[in-house]
């Protein structure tokens, strides 16, 4: 309206020959009816300049208030399996109403933090559209994968605290699958001791990591501290885990170079060795027969500090008594075993 009245005023002095718009944000346009996008919320003074064919110029101005758009985002596990309910956590700001489209043809939702159950496998685009109290809207989309059920609980890290003679253990467990881990059976083994079984009922959701405190406590004899301990996941929700390669973690309790007793002993085909070294360096492992003759060099290479675990196939050896000799820097440790 104000542009039309302005044009009528200029027409009294001749036809309009050109326009110049100043949008107040550092940009201009010479179009008659320009389209402009303001990038920031603010009150801008928009000025229109017009020039008549007779050379006369005039201008008119008007304040234009740009309201802020909502900042839209949400989080979820990012994946699930058919029939499993997923929570979508709304992290948007500056909005008063919401519209969720889950991309699977189902009904939309106006809830702030909805739940949704996908009926079939597939890759779906979930879109959240938010509207502010000023009527401004913005959207955010994220891909959500619905996969075949996968149960994969992994031990990420383990740690120990020795207080006097009492040893307490912790396990950092991550759910790499797309099913809730509601109960999981753990086996805690200490060198030279029988394993202890413990069932945890602290639910771990998909993509979630929890630091689980082992409820069992272990009394350590100060004159004999085990070289290492291990924590292993045996069962998840009463079933075998889909990926068993990440179910076991071992860590040292020793602080000096040490070699654990060989177990099992006698050995049938595979020799298992567990040793601890405090500093990165070369480790040599050799086998000798009962007469002291070297029969095999199993390893000679630089190893990383910490607990090391090796398995060697010795099926070709004859049934007899052998000695395993492990050398680290200036220290040599021997262990006797029976090849059966």
Short descriptors:
mainly beta; Immunoglobulin-like; 4 domains; 4-stranded antiparallel sheet; 4-stranded mixed sheet; 27 strands; elongated
Number of strands: 27
Number of structural domains: 4
Quick one: CATH superfamily of the largest domain? Answer: Immunoglobulins
Radius of gyration computed on alpha carbons: 36 Å
Q: Which structural class matches the secondary elements?
A: mainly beta
CATH topology descriptor of the largest domain = Immunoglobulin-like
How would the global form be characterised? elongated
Q: What distance separates the N and C termini?
A: 102 Å
Biggest sheet overview: 4 strands, antiparallel
Helix content: under 10%
Strand content: over 45%
Q: Any low-confidence stretches, pLDDT <50, length ≥5?
A: none
- Order of strands, main sheet, comes to 2-1-3-4
What is the CATH C level class of the largest domain, in words?
A: Mainly Beta
From N to C, what is the helix and strand string? HEEEEEEEEEEEEEEEEEEEEEEEEEEE
Overview of this structure, please?
This protein has 340 residues and is mainly β. Helix content is 3%, strand content 52%. The protein contains one helix and 27 strands. The strands form eight sheets. The chain has a four-stranded antiparallel beta sheet with strand order 2-1-3-4, covered by helices on one side. Strands 6-12-11-9 form a four-stranded mixed beta sheet, with no helix packed on it.
Brief overview:
With 340 residues, this protein is mostly beta strands. It is 3% helix and 52% strand.
